[in-house]
Design goal:
The complex is a heterodimer of chains A (327) and B (163).
Chain A lengths: L1 H36 L15 H11 L10 H17 L18 H9 L2 H11 L3 H32 L4 H6 L9 H17 L11 H4 L9 H26 L14 H24 L7 H30 L1
Helix pairs in contact in A: 1-2, 1-10, 1-11, 3-5, 3-10, 5-6, 6-8, 6-12, 8-10, 8-12, 10-11
Chain B lengths: L1 H22 L3 H21 L3 H25 L15 H21 L14 H9 L3 H24 L2
Helix pairs in contact in B: 1-2, 2-3
Classes of the chains: A mainly alpha (327), B mainly alpha (163).
Chain lengths: 327, 163
Amino acid sequence: MVEVVRIVLSVLLVFTFAAVGVGLFLVLMERKISAWVQARIGPRHVGPYGTLQTLADLLKMLQKEHILPAGADRVMFELSPIVVAVAALMSYVVLPWGPGLIVRDLGVGVLYFAAVLSLEVIGILTGGWASNNKYALLGGLRSAAQMVSYELPLGFSILTVATVVGTLSTVRIVESQPYPWHTYPSVIVAGAVFLVAATAESNRIPFDLPEAESELVAGYFSEYSPLRFALFQLGEYGSLFATSALFVTMFLGGWRGPFELPVVGSVLSGIFWFLLKTYAVVFFFMWVRWTYPRFRIDQLLNVSWKILLPVSLANLLLAGLLVAWGG
Amino acid sequence: MTEAAAFYILTGTVLGAALVVVLSRNIVHAAVSLIPVLLGVAGYYVLLGAEFVAAIQILIYAGAITVLILFVILLTEGATGLRVRQRNEQVPLGIIGSGALVFLLITLLTRAPWPPAATPLPTYNPGAVGQSFLTAYVLAFEVTSLVIVACLVGAIVIARREE
């Protein structure tokens, strides 16, 4: 019974406080970083230095009318944003925030992560279709093609790490990493592949064809009015944070830092290092987004099938051979 | 108690969604309803302690195969939003076929010597699954890979013919 209460409480905490907080903060961060890259100031009127801007945006979104487009499929139109948001947030279950701080240390942790993240594309695809709008449908289809293609290199780089470490549990992956991180060549290559594939999985520039403004209005969420749009944003930024956190967990040593912070103890210090590293990776993703132009769809699929997939497959094979011969 | 409740909730979800898959006249709804069915089956695997199989089930069936099915439907001209006819002249044949299948399954399930419920479940960790693939079930494993390779080659041949 205690266990059930603990699970319900931690799920509520992660889904409401952590995820919504992260979503709001990442949107603000994105706007500030885009302003910095483009030599602007960015939001500055609401709150000190504009820090309350996204909160104000959210309050405004909550008051807006919900519009159902003519000819739309009502049930699927309403359900799709929820599917996207829930799929993104379900991956938080296996993120190790600090020593002993995890909702559930599943034996198949990283595999579970890849599995629930792959459900996100269903919401995007059905949302695009249910809108009864050709641009939304094209955005949804592009997104499906892209996410299915990039899931393979992403999965192979996760498998490479699992092969080297010998476990799928996120906690064990962190614990068995040498400090500060793996220097094994296969793991470094897997990390590079993971970074590119994760950018594509979260539909961000240079891989943001599903919502290419210049061609598709706004892609799969063109027809959505504010509250559901906010759910799509929550899913997008939620999965961005989750993939960054998984990158930190698998390749950058997770919650472990160069030293334990004084006074606060090992748990809080673990959270501090984990969040610091994760936000550094998130910053990298945003920096790339506002620096590079987007690919064409054929270039995008070529990068996946002709470069990333062979590289990650060969890398997995190499890692397997090394592990088998090395002991 | 908790497990029984989980089992009944899962079964309700699976059966309800499966009915939509079969009965819906909208082919996109049918394809989307496949997802709760597959997730529910993954839930059964979790109840049986087979976490690894459950994760693979979600990753491959719910996350990839259903997406491909949807993708094909949405790309096919005239297939979306169409009210597909659910009956044709083969209804009697279908009833006979499914009746025979139900009879066969019920006979098999009632006559099979089930092991007593108290035996501990085998461990389903990835290592054990891999070991049994390459030792006890190596023939079945290799035959399956051969079938999949044949499917891939066939798909490429069909795709190239159109050019």
